[in-house]
Amino acid sequence: MKGLVHISFAKIDFECPYCGLKYEDNEDKYLDRCNKNKSGYTKIKCKCGNRFGFVYDITGQALGFMLNPSKEEQDKANYFKSLLKSNQL
Ligand SMILES: [Zn+2]
């Protein structure tokens, strides 16, 4: 939900930057993966078929970001997004 304010130290919810599918890092699963990775971020394979980068920024906000998507990947994501919107999943 846009405009919602989270009052906590760390924001653990994030979404796929391609399709907007919601995720929650409530068991620090992705945080652990970030910490183990030298680059400080990890990659997540979304149900829409795309891989996206995931990182906690310096203020403790969970953040999903695109990894140089191809045209094909964006089309796939847009299709998935439309399914999400119409609740067909
Ligand atoms: Zn996705």
Can you walk through the features of this model?
The protein has 89 residues and is α+β, with helices and mostly antiparallel strands. It has one domain (13-85). 26% of the residues lie in helices and 24% in strands. It has two helices and five strands. The site of zinc ion has 9 residues, from helix 2.
Strand content: 15-25%
Named once each, the bound ligands are: zinc ion
Q: Return the structural class.
A: alpha+beta
Q: Describe the strand arrangement of the main beta sheet, using strand numbers.
A: 3-4-5
Give the topology string: H per helix, E per strand. EEHEEEH
Percentage of residues assigned to helices: 25-40%
Radius of gyration: 14 Å
**Ranges with pLDDT <50 over ≥5 residues?**
none
**How would you characterize the largest beta sheet?**
3 strands, antiparallel
Kindly state the mean pLDDT as a whole number? 86
What's the end-to-end separation, in Å?
19 Å
Number of domains: 1
Count of runs of 4 or more consecutive helical residues: 2
Q: So what's the overall shape? A: globular
* Number of E-state strands: 5
Break the fold down into its secondary structure elements and pairings.
Elements: E1 13-15, E2 22-24, H1 29-36, E3 42-45, E4 51-56, E5 62-66, H2 71-85
Antiparallel strand pairs: 1-2, 3-4, 4-5
This protein binds zinc ion.
Brief summary:
By secondary structure, the chain is α+β, with helices and mostly antiparallel strands.
What key attributes describe this structure?
89 residues; alpha+beta; 3-stranded antiparallel sheet; two-stranded antiparallel sheet; 5 strands; 26% helix; globular; binds zinc ion
